[in-house]
Amino acid sequence: MKTTEIKEVIAQGNAVLGIEFGSTRIKSVLIGIQNEPIASGSHEWENSLIDNIWTYSLDDIWTGVQESYQKLIQEVEKNYKVSVRKVKAIGISGMMHGYMVFDGEGKLLVPFRTWRNTMTAQAAEKLTSLFAYNIPQRWSIAHLYQAILNEEPHVADIDFMTTLAGYVHWKLTGRKVIGVGEASGMFPIDIETKDFNQRMIREFHEVIDKKHSWTLAGILPKVLTAGEEAGVLTDEGAKLLDVSGRLETGIPLCPPEGDAGTGMTATNSVAQRTGNVSAGTSVFAMVVLEKELSRVYPELDLVTTPAGDLVAMVHCNNCTSDLNAWVNLFEEFAEASGMRINRGELFELLYKSALAGDADCGGLLAYNYYSGEHITGFEEGRPLFVRKPDSKFNLSNFMKVHLYTSLGALKIGMDILKKQEQVQLDKILGHGGFFKTKEVGQKVMAAALDTPVSVMETASEGGAWGIALLAAYMISQEPGQTLGEYLKQQVFADQEEVCVNPNPEDAAGFAAFAERYAEGLPIERAALNYLK
Length: 532
Fold this sequence. Notes:
alpha/beta
């Protein structure tokens, strides 16, 4: 669209706003009537380790989203010479899982416990056995049950439990609701009813030793599916979001979703035999299933699409944090030597150097465990780089092994799906910072999964664009039109995508690295035991 046309869309309040709370960035995206991004703003933030718990403060949540939104409206004013006073719909997304509990007066009872915490092993194991359904440590119900097992005093005062996305949505609209995809990372979903599994809720109450004034059904948010309206922006919500006071109230919001659901939406991966992988601070792959899995796998989560269809999820806590730390080291060296190099160019230079490395990284080994990794059984992590005297130690292999190890745990989980469950995948769509350098991330991911990997032009927009699309679907869907049909017909019909097929030599090289990765896990265990 032309600048004048976009200006008119914004002036008339026909643009749609999507906001996502990622682990390192809060991003706001405005999309036009053709679902194309027309403006964005972002705020960088970091979690804090307080009392051995990964958390973000409530102040950081609100100052962060306010800055992100302010940067968006500043970009709009600069590029289109118009103010944002109204939008047609809003969507809120956030990193999935975690634990936010409030009392009857809306007070947060304990600091937000994020997905990154691996402190609920006992609860997760007991619940998995009870439900015959895998309950990962990061799920909200695991955090709640662990708090009960630990006899934490705050449990008696719980009135409402939600996620980050659910919390922000609640404060903007006053409604305690959640999208079904996000809900599926709190507590198991009944695929038939698209609601929390009532049998499992009953089983949960049967094993609680101490009776509480609350019931699980009473403290969980109401589950909604894609396309349903989830409330409107209130006076209080508008003031929280836009400190300038210009944003009008009454704007409809779609159900709040997690980064898994928005990732599926942003990559058109909500249909069967499709999947997507989001790779950034953490990495997770989502595969829409044609049928139930044959048994419970602790390495695999079962969640849903925003429409409520069953999805197998391979989630790994660690992806690019250690890789980024090494890039930072190279940046420090460059500055110390008197060179000034653009950070984006440095990433591209180092990533592309990996393409010249040996297929198996020359025998090098690394673990990117900043935090625990449940797939390989670690509650804490210690980043490591290991080599033998005769390993081929050069820049290309060094960068390649750190790209490879970013996907090491993911490879283990995806092999279960492909080799043990015989799940068929036509292609995987990638998004996130791992894919920012053209082709490099795709080639590494294709080698790891031995599956074609596609990236779209809009891949860098990520979850903020995905939740904006879900908001647009809510207000623009035709009668009976499914989310998959809407995305195919009205969003991605003309989208170009770049597909990279797995190179057989690279796939064999990654398989050799994966064997070394699995055999070397005792080294990581030793580091954990001795580096306290």
